Amino acid sequence: MNCVICKQSETAAAIVTVTLERGPTTLVFKRVPAQVCENCGESYLDESTSRRLLEQAEAAVRPGVEVEIRTYAA
């Protein structure tokens, strides 16, 4: 995939850390599979990874978590 941000390079499979925030809650997910631009470092998640990440985030927000660091569970 060609990077839509810098338009200079292709992306390659990599593992990234994703931070999500909603109101007072901050969630950090480690070891998330992504495509990352070799030039600018922009990362892209596929649809299934995004969906799973949001499901895990919703589960953490419900009980009122303020800050949490998790390893992504595929």
Descriptive overview:
- The structure is a single chain.
- With 74 residues, the protein is α+β, with helices and mostly antiparallel strands.
- The chain has a single domain (11-71), classed as Ubiquitin-like (UB roll).
- Helix content is 20%, strand content 43%.
- The protein contains one helix and four strands; from the N terminus they run βββαβ.
- Strands 1, 2, 3 and 4 form a four-stranded mixed β-sheet that branches.
- The chain is elongated, with a radius of gyration of 14 Å.
- The model has no long low-confidence stretch (mean pLDDT 93).
Describe the structure using short key phrases.
43% strand, 4-stranded mixed beta sheet, Ubiquitin-like (UB roll), 1 helix, 74 residues, alpha+beta
By secondary-structure content and strand pairing, the structural class works out as: alpha+beta
CATH topology: Ubiquitin-like (UB roll)
Percent of residues in helices comes to 10-25%
Strand content: 35-45%
Number of helices: 1
Quaternary? single chain
Using the alpha-carbon principal axes, give the shape.
elongated
CATH class: Alpha Beta
User: Number of domains in the coordinates?
Assistant: 1
Low-confidence stretches: none
Rg over CA atoms: 14 Å
* N to C succession of SSEs: EEEHE
Biggest β-sheet: count, sense, barrel? 4 strands, mixed
Count every beta strand, where a strand is a DSSP E run of 2 or more residues.
Answer: 4
Distance between the termini: 22 Å
- Summed over residues and divided by their number, the pLDDT gives a mean of 93
The CATH architecture term is Roll
